Task: inverse folding
């Protein structure tokens, strides 16, 4: 789904974003078309179409670009500086880097393409940024699929073979290389294409879209079908794996609540042990932040046998409990992030399917929704913004590290401007 959206949405955009609502163009501006030069008239028509139809979607992209840049910059800074090497850290850094690229480059380019959709003439810029758009969407989809499989093995197969941090980096690099290879094809099929405007046959503009030489070829159709197939496979894979992860997490939450109720009923007989556990928990909380364990529920039997004193036993139990809680929190965080990402892709995919099956129905939807339809077609950009928001709400440590980062930055600035005595 993530990979196919750009190429397929081009088919929608060619007929709707530019030509569909031309009747809404400001009549006073177009009424002067006979009194201006051809190039000036084209610019006037282009600007009028932009004002009447495309300002909402450009504002939408601008807001997403700002939020995505800020959020993903925080994710990259915090996870690279404050987190120890782990699979969790590797996946977040890769995903945040791709999303940051989309926020800094892809979204502004999309806005530029919308604004100058009749006078776009630089072929190198067209090919480069279209390929970049395909790369960020394809790589993001691959990373979400890899994370889903890794979380499934971590939670559902804790005693099986797990990805090491080095292996996680290698898998992410392979995903990026494959995404580059797939996106490079878009650099071939896209280019500057002349377009005539309905009701203004004397005007011919140029836009960045799939070239006519490739539009009806087997290369373009096969490329579209292949990307759609990959997107569907990744989407189904995420649903399948996270359904098992969610079930395991739900069962463990129920088990934890029942165990807590049982232990609270007999807590009066274990006051001294409870005091020891509390002090150990405080020591662990002040000694630093612990990353997730190598497996979700792994217990080293030899270590358990070696532990004989009540204090050491409670310390091991508390440490393992913190590891389990952290691993569950990470799994839940990635589950929410993946779900939010694909929710952003759904409107785009539904509209594209309707367009491919019955274009008349799509035209009716486009006419009824107006400018909002252009926003829905580009709803996939939400996936590049929601991830750091999910980290902020779900990961307590991420919030704490962000606050600490700003405190250090504040004291550093104050020290350099001599505000601190």
Result:
């Amino acid at each position: 789904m993530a990979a196919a959206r750009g190429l397929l949405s081009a088919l929608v955009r060619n007929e709707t974003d530019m030509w569909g609502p031309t009747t809404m163009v400001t009549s006073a501006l177009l009424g002067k078309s006979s009194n201006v030069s051809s190039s000036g008239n084209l610019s006037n028509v282009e600007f009028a179409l932009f004002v009447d139809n495309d300002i909402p979607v450009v504002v939408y992209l601008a807001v997403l670009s700002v939020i995505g840049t800020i959020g993903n910059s925080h994710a990259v800074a915090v996870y690279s500086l404050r987190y120890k090497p782990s699979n969790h850290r590797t996946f977040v850094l890769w995903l945040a880097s791709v999303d940051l690229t989309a926020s800094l480059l892809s979204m502004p380019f999309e806005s530029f393409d919308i604004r100058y959709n009749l006078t776009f003439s630089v072929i190198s810029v067209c090919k480069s940024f279209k390929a970049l758009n395909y790369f960020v969407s394809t790589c993001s989809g691959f990373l979400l699929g890899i994370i889903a499989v890794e979380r499934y093995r971590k939670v559902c197969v804790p005693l099986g073979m797990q990805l090491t941090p080095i292996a996680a980096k290698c898998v992410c690099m392979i995903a990026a290389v494959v995404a580059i290879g797939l996106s490079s094809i878009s650099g071939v099929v896209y280019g500057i294409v002349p377009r005539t405007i309905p009701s203004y046959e004397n005007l011919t503009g140029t836009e960045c879209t799939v070239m006519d030489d490739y539009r009806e070829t087997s290369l373009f159709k096969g490329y579209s079908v292949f990307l759609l197939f990959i997107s569907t496979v990744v989407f189904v894979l995420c649903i399948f794996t996270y359904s098992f992860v969610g079930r395991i997490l739900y069962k463990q939450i129920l088990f934890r609540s029942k165990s807590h109720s049982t232990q609270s009923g007999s807590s009066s007989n274990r006051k001294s042990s409870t005091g020891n556990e509390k002090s150990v928990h405080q020591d662990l909380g002040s000694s630093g932040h612990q990353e997730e364990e190598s497996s979700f529920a792994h217990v080293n039997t030899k270590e358990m046998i070696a532990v004989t004193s009540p204090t050491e036993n409670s310390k091991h139990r508390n440490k393992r409990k913190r590891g389990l809680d952290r691993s569950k929190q990470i799994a839940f965080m990635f589950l929410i992030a993946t779900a939010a990402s694909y929710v952003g892709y759904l409107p785009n995919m539904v509209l594209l399917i309707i367009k491919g099956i019955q274009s008349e129905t799509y035209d009716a939807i486009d006419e009824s929704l107006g400018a909002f339809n252009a926003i829905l077609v580009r709803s996939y950009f939400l996936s590049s913004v929601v991830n750091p928001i999910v980290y902020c709400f779900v990961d307590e440590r991420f919030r704490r590290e962000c606050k600490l980062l700003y405190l250090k930055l504040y004291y550093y600035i104050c020290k350099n401007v001599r505000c601190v005595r």
In short: The CA atoms of residues 130 and 187 lie 7 Å apart.
